[in-house]
Amino acid sequence: MNARPSLNASPAALRFANRRAGPRLRTMNPWPSILRRLAAVCLALPLFAAASPVPAASSTPQAATGAPKVLRIPFVAAETGFDFAQVSDLYSNVAIAHIFDSLYTYDHLARPFKIKPSLAEALPEVSPDFRTWTIRLRPGTHFDDHPVFGGKKRELVAADVVFTFKRFFDPALKSPHYSGMVEEGIVGMQALRDAAEATRKPFDYDKPVAGLRALDRYTVQFRLENPRPRFLYLLADTPIMAREVVERYGAAVMEHPVGTGPYRLAEWRRSSRMVFERNPNYRELYYDAEPNADDVEGQALLAKLKGRRLPMIDRVEVSVVEESQPRWLAYLNGEFDLVTVPLEFVNVAAPQGELAPNLAKRGMRLSQGLLSDVTFAYFNMEDPVVGGYTPEKVALRRAISLGTDVGREIRIARRGQAIPAQSAVAPHTYGYDPAFKSETSDHDVPRAKALLDLFGYVDRDGDGWRDLPDGRPLVLAYASQPDQISRQFDELWKRNMDALGLRLDIRVGTWPEQLKQARAGQLMIWQLGSSSTTPDGQGGLQMAYGPGAGGANLARFRLDAFDAVYRRIDTLPDGPERLAAFAEAKKLLAAYLPYKYNVHRVAQDLTQPWVVGYRRPTFWRNQWHMMDVLPRE
Question: Which pTM value belongs to this model?
Answer without folding.
Answer: 0.83
